[in-house]
Amino acid sequence: MTEPELSERDLPSAEDMENELGGRIERDIIQLHPIPDAEWRTREKLFLVDSPLRQEIAESIGRYFKRETPYDFPPYSAGDESSETPVYLIRTTRVGAVVAIAAGALGMRRVQGEWILKWIWIHPWERGQLGDGPEQTANLVFRTLDELYGDFLIEGPISPAMRRLMEKRGYDSDRVVHVG
Fold it and tell me: What is the mean pLDDT of the chain?
């Protein structure tokens, strides 16, 4: 049996292909973002979002967060950060480079004198490093947050992965708060 011949009108147009694949490709791609305005060869794990370039990166990472959660809006838009609502980029521990590479972001907020972790997103490649080792991405991030913010709270609802991380780090479940 032979295949029937296809004519030009049987094939999708370039526009149809773009419409079909464009959204899917955009949805499925997760970029690691260089942070070119960071000091070269720095060992820092968190970078304060304090420049237009870092704002753009944080917005992109916020969109990744939105894709994975039931929220209607990304958790961050450029200009949302302030001394009461700092946002940080998270440096990768898996990719070695001279320039810092962002593999996540997080947002904090001070409410009635208490610091609350509002949101955090870590690249899936880095999440596999949620083990007990001291150099695991999540451990480095949370150790830094402990140093900066003491016994900070964590806004719920939280994911099962966050619950496991809290248990591994010895955080009490009463650290989870629901802010209206």
Answer: 83
